[in-house]
Amino acid sequence: MNDGSCAMTFMWGDLFRRSKAQGSILHDKLGVAPTPGSELVLDRETGELVPCTRERCPYAKYYEDIGFVNSAPYAANGGWGAAISANT
Q1: Who has the most CB within 10 Å: 2, 33, 50, 65?
Q2: DSSP string spanning 36-77?
Q3: Under a CB-based contact definition with an 8 Å cutoff, are residues 57 and 72 in contact?
Q4: How far is the first Cα of the chain from the last one, in angstroms, to the nearest whole number?
């Protein structure tokens, strides 16, 4: 997989777990990464794409070379989440 080729999947988390199983053709070849983001967002007043700023994109991540990048979370099929109450 280090030959410059790439495959992307947006699926449930069990695909990643299954890829780790011995005998899987994806064994040790599948990784995880955040969803891609954008340096531009829609200004709803003007209808134009404008660059992200700290004010416009408060949850964006800042990169020295390209500036603020805004990403939307992705939760396949409604997503999975877990939490433990502080009261337990």
Answers
A1: 50
A2: P-BSEEEETTTTEEEE--TTT-TTPEEETTTEEEB-----GG
A3: no
A4: 44
Span 37-58, pLDDT tens digits:
999 999 999 999 999 999 999 9
Residues of the chain with pLDDT under 50: 1
Closest-CA residue to 76 (of 29, 15, 17): 15
| φ/ψ of residue 41, rounded to 5 | -135, 160
Q: How far is CA 47 from CA 42, 43, 50, 59, in A?
A: 6, 5, 9, 21
Question: Is the model's pTM score more than 0.85?
Answer: no
φ, ψ of residue 18 to 5 degrees: the values are -65, -35
Which residues is 40 bridged to in the sheet?
51
Neighbouring residues of 26: CB distance < 8 A, sequence distance ≥ 6: 18, 19
